[in-house]
Amino acid sequence: MSRVAEIAKEIIAREGGYVNDPDDPGGATNFGVTIHTMRRLGLDLTGDGRVTAADVKRLSRAQAEDIFIEHYFTRPGIEALPQALQASVFDMYVNAGSNAVKILQRLLREMGQDISVDGVIGPQTAAAAATVARAAPGHIADAYGIARRNYYFRIADRRPASRKFARTRSGGKGGWIKRAEEFISPRFHLSRADFAERVASWG
């Protein structure tokens, strides 16, 4: 099995099966593939001429994997990035679309790279990422993972309805934060106390 296919399978495992949470802007979702994506791709699996939640429910793991590899790895050009970044950017692209690339581009700018923040992996972004990865090979993946985590926190700061994705009912780390920290070295994970302090303003 190719490395990219293995990453796609790991993403599907993190995403889980069918959900349709009214607080999730993605709408009906199965294995991480949203109804909006299926409509964009014209995936009418029931054959009734429409793409509805029923089609989302029919999506298979294999179909989800193919969608991820083609539309969230190959077409965005993630293969052009250093290998240390590919899994995390791929995972984030499934979760946040081109914002995954914008997060990287902003990070690279903070690291002194003169590139645009446009959500597109072009030659300049790829070269900037390679430059930073060569200079700090053990740092770039953690830095991107931390930037992801901060992105989720900012969404929850602005949108109370999204806080349940960042913090559990018992006050622990929610799925978004755990997902980001899967790509961050344990020494940079937030402690229970640090997490509680970060979200204290949410009430």
Please provide the count of β strands. Answer: 2
- The mean pLDDT is 95
Low-pLDDT windows of residues: none
What amount of the residues lies in strands? under 5%
- Helix content range of the residues, please? 55-70%
- The number of domains: 2
Order of helices and strands: HEEHHHHHHHHH
Alpha carbon gap, first and last residue: 46 Å
Protein model, in words:
This protein is mainly α and 203 residues long. The protein is 56% helix and 2% strand. The protein has 10 helices and 2 strands, in the order H-E-E-H-H-H-H-H-H-H-H-H. It has a two-stranded antiparallel ribbon.
Short description:
With 203 residues, the chain is an all-alpha fold.
SSE blueprint and pairings:
Blueprint: H1 3-15, E1 29-30, E2 33-34, H2 35-41, H3 53-58, H4 61-74, H5 83-96, H6 99-110, H7 123-135, H8 140-158, H9 175-181, H10 192-199
Notable traits:
single chain, about 200 residues, mainly alpha, 2 domains, two-stranded antiparallel sheet, globular
